[in-house]
Amino acid sequence: MKIEWHDKSPIYRQLAEKLRELILQGIYDDNDAIPSVRQIAAEHHINPLTVSKAFQMLVDEQLVIKKRGLGMYVGPHARHQLIASERKRFLEQEWPRFNQRALDLGFDLSILIKELL
Amino acid sequence: MKIEWHDKSPIYRQLAEKLRELILQGIYDDNDAIPSVRQIAAEHHINPLTVSKAFQMLVDEQLVIKKRGLGMYVGPHARHQLIASERKRFLEQEWPRFNQRALDLGFDLSILIKELL
Amino acid sequence: MKIEWHDKSPIYRQLAEKLRELILQGIYDDNDAIPSVRQIAAEHHINPLTVSKAFQMLVDEQLVIKKRGLGMYVGPHARHQLIASERKRFLEQEWPRFNQRALDLGFDLSILIKELL
Amino acid sequence: MKIEWHDKSPIYRQLAEKLRELILQGIYDDNDAIPSVRQIAAEHHINPLTVSKAFQMLVDEQLVIKKRGLGMYVGPHARHQLIASERKRFLEQEWPRFNQRALDLGFDLSILIKELL
DNA sequence: GTGGTCTAGACCACT
DNA sequence: GTGGTCTAGACCACA
Q1: D12 touches strand E (CB under 7 A)
Q2: Mind listing the pLDDT tens digit for each residue in B70-113?
C-alpha cells in the first residue's frame, strides 16, 4: 500500500481506492474499526486533511460509517455492496471498453485467455 | 473529432489523443502534412497555444515532425511505431491489470467471451 | 542567476539550464525542495507560465519530481544522472566535433594545452 | 551536405555554414563561380528565397560577390580571410569555452589528446 | 499554499 | 503563410 507522489491520480483518490480494495478483499471486514485519520496520515506521511477527504468519499458511498468520538467503521454490508457495484461497473463499462480496445489493436482475447491457462 | 469541454482530461491531451487516433487509422498517413495550428484552433474554437501544446506532445513522441516555417508533418514511420508501442503497452500493462481485476471480482473471462459470440 | 533578456535562446530554456547547473553543483541537492513557480517568477520578473515551461523540461528529463499540491523536488539521483549524461555527451559529441574543427583550422591542440600551463 | 529540417538552426544558416565550409576547404576556390540560387534550391528542395538569404549573409561578410546577370562568385581572398577570422574566433571564444566546460565535467584535456594519438 | 489549464493578444523568426 | 515565445489574468484541483 504505497502512495504514488509523482502525479497520476490525486492522493486522496489513491487512498480511497486502496481502502475500497481492503474492504473488497475482506481485510477490513464488515463492522470492523478502521485506523484513525492520524494513524494513516503518520504512516504514509500524508497531510491528515487529505486522509479525511478520502474517508469522506467512502462515507458518501456508505461504505464507511462515522461514529462520533469513536472513529470510522466499515459499514454493515459494505463488502457485499462493494462487490455488487464493482461487478456492475465492470460488466457495463470496463469490459466493453477493454474489448473494443483489444479489437482496435488486432488482438483476439479468446486466444490471449487460452495462453494464460 | 470533437472536443469534450466538460471532460476531466485537458483539451490539449484530448486533441493529442485524437491526432494519434487519426495517425493510427492511417487517415493522416506517414509524411503527410497536418493542418496548421491556427487552422485546428479556428476549427475547434480553441486557443492556438493549446493546440501547440498538443502538437508538442506528439513531437516529443516522435510521431510528428516540425519543418521550420512550413508546418507539421506526420513522422516517417509514425503509424508503425504507434501500433507497436500501443500493442506493447496493452500486453504488458492493460491486459494483466484487467485480468487481475476480473479475477478479484470473480469473473471468468473465458465465459464472458463466449457470451459475446 | 540572471536572465539575459536579449539572448537568442528563450527565457524558459535559460532558466532550465540554470537550474540544471544548480543541481549539477549540488546547490540544490537530491530530494531538496525547489523554490515554487510563483517565487521564481516574482524573483526574476517572469511570467509564472514561463517558469512552468522550464520546470516541465526538467520533469521530462526526470531531474525534477512534482509532488501534487506541494511543489517541485530534486529527483532522487538527479545529480549523479546529470553528471553522467553530460560527460557522455561531451565525449561522444562535443569532443570529436571540437577536435575536427581544430584540425580543419590547422591548430595542434596539444600545443595549445601546453601554452595554458 | 544535408539539410536538417527537424529544427535546431534555421535552414538559411545551415546553408550559409555549409557554403563557408566548402570555401574553407578550397572546394569552392577563390574567384570560382557558385551554383545558382535555383540550382541549390532544386537540389535540396529548399525555397529559393531561403537560399538567397544564405547568400546574402555571405555577401555581407564579403566572402561572396554578386555579379549582376552572371551569378555569385567566391571573393578574391575569401579563403584566406575566412581562415583568419575563424582562427581568431576559435582562439578567443571556442577554445576557452570548451576548456572551461571540460574542467567543469572533470576531464583533463591533455590526457584526452594523448589517447587520440 | 502548490502547480495545471486556458484565453486573448502581442511580437518574433523562418520559409 | 508557418510555429515559438511571452505576458497578464482568470479559474481550477490538490494538499
Answers
A1: yes
A2: 999 999 999 999 999 999 999 998 898 888 888 888 888 888 88
Kindly tell me if the per-residue pLDDT of D76 is higher than 90.
yes
Calculate the angstrom distance between C1' of E2 and CA of B80.
40
- Look up cell 480553441; give the residue: B46
Which DSSP helix (H) or strand (E) runs through A22? helix A11-24
Q: Give CA–CA dist A66/A106, Å, rounded.
A: 49
pLDDT of C116 strictly over 80? no
Beta carbon of B42 within 7 Å of strand F?
Answer: no
B12 C-beta less than 7 Å away from strand F: no
pLDDT of residue B117: 66
Among the partner-chain residues C24, C98, C114, the one whose CB lies closest to the CB of D98 is C98
Out of 1.20.120.420, 3.40.50.300, 1.10.3720.10, 1.10.10.10, the CATH code matching D11-76 is 1.10.10.10
- DSSP-derived letter for residue A10 is -
Q: What is the CA radius of gyration of chain C?
A: 18
Query: Which amino acid is residue B85, in one-letter code?
Result: S
Please, where in chain C does CATH 1.10.10.10 lie? 11-76
Q: Extract the residue ranges of chain A whose pLDDT is less than 50.
A: none
Chains that touch C (3 or more CB pairs under 8 A): A, D
Give yes or no for residue C1 having a pLDDT over 80: no
